[in-house]
Amino acid sequence: MCRGGRGQLYAFCDDYGIAHRRIGKLIVAAEGEQPALERIERRAQANDVQDLIWLDARQANALEPAIRCESALLSPSTGIVDSYALMLSLLGQAENLGATVAYRTPVAAIEPGQSGLDVFCADPSGSLLRAKRVVNAAGLGATDIANRTYGLDSLYQPTLRLAKGNYFRLHGRCPFNRLIYPVPQPGGLGVHLTLDLAGQARFGPDVEWINTPDFSASPARHCAFEQQIRRYWPTLPGDALTPDYAGVRPKLGETGDQDFRIDTPAHHGIPGLLNLFGIESPGLTASLAIADYVADQLN
Predict the structure, then answer these.
(1) What is the pLDDT of residue 256?
(2) pLDDT (tens digit, 9 = 90+) per residue, 14-60?
């Protein structure tokens, strides 16, 4: 879905004038990490990703002189997008097609009925919606909604682990022109360099396991960030990082490394209900392909 969604997303941005840029990405292996990088290459080939380029240290330095690594994989088709503009465009198209967005309307319960699904809302009026189809794409709240669905077997109410990811902003000039990713770490992709369309550089996310959502950046992670970044950028200035923001990813499984999970009526037996769990990175890249899959399952 990431591979297919990437092409769809580039085409969508071109068609609707959403700012984006194909800047490329380097996945870099430090000392002793080359076998892990080779596994990533094999996995990419198995998923029919055809444009990765293997680089030795000299070739990687030719592209990014500030980098330190033993080897790297270049993904030339990786890009960045104005995600806010993308969301506004999708919202506008949905509303033009007759969709209504009910903000600040929590779902209290879902109950299968004779002609579809009854969705009970926890708003002041106690609204009841009757729907032929319900797509639970609530992100961090997806398992809560599944737990409030009558008749849904516990096998289809997975436990999500919450992984807080802190980001630190880089002050001063960034020496890199591409996204820089280390070899992935347990529970995440490692502290990597991201660039936005204005050229601002940030590092993150790390993995901080939490029990309840917390979106405040943690200054205490500063030293750990510097240590991880200096593995591939040894000349990072000592006063260059400032806490910026944090996000929370919905992780599936005890180790937080399971793939996307989409439960359809063929799985749980409730007609018209689709539950999407663990849709984290690269969920944005894969979003249009996920939408196509969900639509196919509903038809």
Answers:
(1) 64
(2) 999 999 999 999 999 999 999 999 999 999 999 999 899 999 999 99
Q: Any idea which fold 102-159+257-298 has?
A: FAD/NAD(P)-binding domain (3.50.50)
Residues in the chain, overall count: 299
- Could you identify the residue written with the tokens 């969508």? 12
Task: State the residue for tokens 């109410």.
Answer: 157
SS3 94: helix
How far is residue 246 CA from its own chain's centroid? 13
- Distance between CA 156 and CA 261 in Å, rounded? 10
Q: Which secondary structure element, helix H or strand E, spans residue 293, and what is its range?
A: helix 283-298
Question: What average pLDDT does the chain have?
Answer: 94
Same fold yes or no, 25-76+160-252 and 102-159+257-298? no
Domain 25-76+160-252 = CATH 3.60.15.10: no
Q: What is the 3-state secondary structure (H, E, C) of 150-219?
A: CCCCHHHCCCEEEEEEEEEEECCCCCCCCEEEECCECCECCCEEEECCCCCEEEECCCEEECCCCCCCCH
Contacting residues for 16 by C-beta, under 8 A, at least 6 apart: 89
**65-119: per-residue pLDDT in tens?**
999 999 999 999 999 999 999 999 999 999 999 999 988 899 999 999 888 999 9
Give the ranges where 17-82 is alpha helix by DSSP (H).
34-46, 57-63
Confirm if 167 and 201 have CB atoms less than 8 A apart.
no
CA 162 to chain centre: 13
Q: Could you tell me which residues come within 8 angstroms of residue 60 by beta carbon, excluding any fewer than 6 positions away?
A: 26, 28, 67, 69, 71, 72, 74
